[in-house]
Design brief:
Layout lengths: L1 E10 L2 E9 L5 H10 L16 E5 L2 E2 L15 E6 L5
Parallel strand pairs: 1-5
Antiparallel strand pairs: 1-2, 3-4, 3-5
């Protein structure tokens, strides 16, 4: 098992920030699916399919730009997930 730092903002359970354990072979898509099943992803604001309504950063890089959901997560990666629609 590997550990990553996971931060999820705008989830139904408010902010989630923790050390998260993932399997050795875990892609970003695998992680998002796990969080979706656990109802831990941010609320959707539109009718986007899949994870298109999320901004996902791995170690500060927006991986949604290149749609790199098959990115393999490594030990100590920092994953931040926020809703694509965020106000200020």
């Amino acid at each position: 098992m590997k550990h990553i730092l996971l931060e999820v903002y705008g989830s139904k359970t408010s902010q989630l920030k923790l050390s998260y354990e993932i399997p050795e072979q875990c892609s970003l898509n695998d992680l998002l699916q796990q969080l979706e099943v656990a109802d831990r992803l941010p609320k959707k604001f539109g009718k986007g399919k899949g994870f298109s309504e999320l901004l996902v950063f791995v170690n500060g890089e927006n991986v949604m730009v290149g749609k790199r959901l098959n990115h393999s997560l490594e030990e100590d990666d920092k994953v931040v997930i926020i809703p694509a629609m965020a106000g200020g």
